[in-house]
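Could you help me review a protein record that somebody else here produced? This is what I was given.
***
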Amino acid sequence: MGIFTTFIIQPILNLLIWIYNVIPGNDLGVAIIVLTAIFKLVLYPFTMAQIKQQRALQILQPKIDEIRKRLKDKKEEQAKELMELYKQEKVNPASSCVPLLIQLPIFIGLYRALADGVNSKLSLLYPFISNPGTINPIMFGGIDLSKPSYLLAVLAGAVQFWQSWQIMRKPSPASPPPPEVEGKKGAKDEGMAATMNKQMMYIMPVVTVFIGVSLPGGLTLYWLIMSLLTVAQQTVFLRKPKMPSPVPQLS
């Protein structure tokens, strides 16, 4: 076996089959949901840091727009001032990629475990994991998780949009723009980054649906549940009246 199989695919598969064995009804869909919740729990601190960074950037957007407007013809000074702003506010714009990079091996491992059917991978079970013989890929008696599911793909895309819309919403009117930019024209203009973020809010759900209809339903279910849990995590965080300080950075 290769290194990826030994350290990624095999542990994920064994955890999935163990959950499948112990849950009542032996439903693969429920097993994937439980597996996703476990991964979400492990990734919780990374996702929370990502949410805080994204929200901090959203709140800083008036300052960012003002700097870009004021120094639009002086790119080097603009970049330097933006970096100083990020450093002062303890914000790292690139940190939102970290949870996705951490999830990538898990996503690929689960894909490899489900792509050819879970039953074809049962030879990878550890000796202490009971071999169920045959895994039933039907979830709730109606959705075949070994095949692409249009329903799950559309739901995953919808939740992806909800997740992006939730974090991209403007801060409450009770939180006015920073004094140094309030009333300035630059504070009302959208910078390139803000525009790109808004575009991605609409593009990513479409990409999610497009990719989802070509993947095994079990993998799309994983992405759907992970997104739903992120929405729940964001909801709890965004109920707080103020941004916690300082904002932790991901390196």
User: Anything to note?
Assistant: The chain has one domain: 3-122+136-238.
